[in-house]
UniProtKB/TrEMBL annotation:
Its EC number is 3.4.21.105. Residues 202-341 form the Peptidase S54 rhomboid domain. The chain crosses the membrane at residues 156-175, 204-228, 240-261, 267-285, 297-313, 325-344, 356-377. This is Rhomboid protease GlpG. It is found in: Membrane. Belongs to the peptidase S54 family. One of its GO terms (biological process) is proteolysis. Keywords: Hydrolase, Membrane, Protease, Transmembrane, Transmembrane helix. The keyword Lipid biosynthesis does not apply. It is a multi-pass membrane protein. It comes from Paraburkholderia humisilvae. The keyword S-adenosyl-L-methionine does not apply. It comes from the Bacteria.
Length: 515
């Protein structure tokens, strides 16, 4: 893959000189990259099958590698390069990349992979320090930009403070019995999740506390990994306090949008705030696209855009994902970041400018939050949304009842039935088990839900599920009374009812409409 290099010439820079002089003779084990492609503006090798050595000796660099084939002879590569033809050496982890003169004004890339990062640094130190004018200029701009953001934010404490607080909340909940792999819904509500009926009734603090609560270990770990990866970048760009303000504001807008989207939802998690962090990164690189080095702009713009696009697509094509929080957090973070984003070189910033920025940010925040609150309170008075919140409350109240009813049915399957115990077995089904399932059925049946809504489909599925189990238990009690527990026909009827109940339960968990 060749590329043209205008303004041909050799440049030694401070960055290049830090590599030191070329040693007399050094040899390293490497894998030679092939099948190049560009990803997010950066050249990458798809394959490193060709393995061998890279040797630096005097004014020569020799790369000898061999790639095995399943069919046919091995493919050998033997490159003899002059040090005068090698430019633009850079290191990325275990990879060392440099450009080689391939013709008048033409460069060809070479990528090798060392055994570890230490050897990669040694290889780079052994290679020439010279750079083409274009690369030297880009390298200088990149180093200057990184130095500026490092000077602005020398210590990253805000991201780690959020991770520490979120971790503390999660493990306190686990220690107090909320659950580890899956946190119980009732426990999440007790600790402050964004439960629509409670939040709208005046417990507005849930809009913020829900950002630090998660529904399970995987949910918690995934969000914290994404936060650490993206949060540190955004914190460098915006500064500690501004980053913290953006995170919390995006969490609030995500929680409000979640309730606008689903009035009866029980939502929790940092994903809305994290989408706000990604939105702020997108806002920054778009606002200062002329000032950010192109390689950094392309990398971060494409990273943010790809992550946002993929996750929004996944959310809209799969059930059980709080798209409202994602969209609300993304918009909130983007809007506030457009105002808060400091320029690349803010050395001439004054108190007056800072006061204006924070004043404008406060106005934007109050306007957005006020507008969302007004919309939420206005919509919450509508009968259909009142019905949705009431249905959600009934479902939460029936949770313990359903858990006990399921446990009682499972205990029946494990209990051996003798001839003398048949009457007691049938009596327990009729006096304990069936009334529990009748209570569940009656409670759901009397709740009004908006016609044609997802709640209506859920209600139909629950009624069918509870009805199937009730009928199966009635048949089982009748079989015990009539001594037909081994009757194949009756057992087939019970199996058919319970299989349909399991299908309904599975679809209810997925949030799908009943079949």
């Amino acid at each position: 893959m060749n590329r043209s290099e205008p303004g041909w010439g050799r440049v030694d820079t401070e960055v290049g000189e830090s590599f030191g002089r070329t040693p007399i003779d050094q040899s390293f084990e490497v894998a030679l990259g092939s099948r190049f492609r560009k990803v997010w503006g950066q050249l990458q090798a798809r394959s490193f099958q060709s393995k061998g050595t890279l040797r630096v000796s005097g004014s020569r660099v020799t790369i000898r590698t061999s790639a095995s084939r399943l069919i046919g002879a091995d493919v050998d590569t033997d490159l003899e390069l002059r040090c005068d033809d090698i430019y633009n050496v850079r290191v990325n982890g275990k990879l060392v990349q440099f450009d080689v003169v391939s013709g008048p004004g033409e460069l060809a890339p070479i990528i090798v992979r060392a055994r570890n990062k230490g050897e990669a640094a040694l290889i780079a130190a052994a290679l020439p320090t010279q750079m083409t004018p274009r690369y030297a200029r880009e390298n200088h701009e990149r180093a200057r930009f990184l130095q500026q953001v490092m000077t602005r934010t020398p210590h990253l404490w805000a991201t780690w403070a959020i991770v520490a607080m979120t971790s503390l909340v999660f493990f306190v909940m686990v220690a107090r019995g909320a659950g580890f792999g899956t946190v119980k819904s009732a426990s999440a509500i007790a600790y402050g999740s964004n439960y629509g009926p409670y939040t709208v009734s005046g417990q507005w603090w849930r809009l913020l506390t829900s950002v630090f609560i998660h529904f399970g270990f995987v949910h918690f770990v995934f969000n914290m990994i994404v936060l650490v990866q993206t949060g540190r970048i955004v914190e460098r760009l915006f500064g500690n306090v501004r980053f913290l303000v953006i995170y919390l504001f995006a969490g609030l807008t995500g929680s409000l949008m979640s309730l606008l989207w689903h009035p009866g939802i029980n939502s929790a998690g940092a994903s809305g705030a994290i989408f706000g962090v990604l939105g702020s990164l997108l806002a920054y690189v778009l606002r200062y696209s002329d000032s950010i080095p192109r390689s950094i702009f392309l990398k971060h713009f494409r990273m943010a855009a790809l992550f946002i696009g993929y996750n929004l697509y996944w959310g809209f094509t799969h059930r059980g994902i709080d798209n409202g929080a994602h969209v609300g957090g993304l918009i909130g973070g983007f809007m506030l970041a457009c105002v808060l984003a400091p320029p690349i070189d803010d050395s001439d910033s004054s108190r007056e400018r800072s006061a204006f920025v924070f004043g404008a940010s406060g106005a934007v925040a109050c306007t957005v939050l006020g507008g969302l609150m007004w919309a939420l309170l206005t919509l919450s008075a509508r009968p259909d949304r009142q019905e949705a919140m009431q249905f959600s409350e009934v479902l939460q109240q029936l949770g313990p009842v359903e858990s006990k009813a399921i446990a009682d049915v499972k205990s029946l399957a494990r209990e051996p039935v003798t001839g003398e115990g048949r009457a007691e077995y049938a009596g327990r089904i009729r006096t304990t088990v069936i009334p529990e399932w009748n209570q569940l059925y009656a409670a759901i049946d009397k709740v009004q839900v908006p016609a044609g809504s997802s709640d209506a489909a859920l209600k139909d599925g629950l009624l069918r599920y509870y009805g199937d189990v009730t009928k199966a238990m009635q048949l089982l009690a009748d079989m015990a009374d009539s001594n037909q527990l081994r009757d194949y026909g009756a057992k087939s009827q019970i199996k058919e009812l319970m299989d349909d109940a399991k299908r309904q339960a599975a679809m209810i968990r997925r949030g799908a409409a009943p079949l």
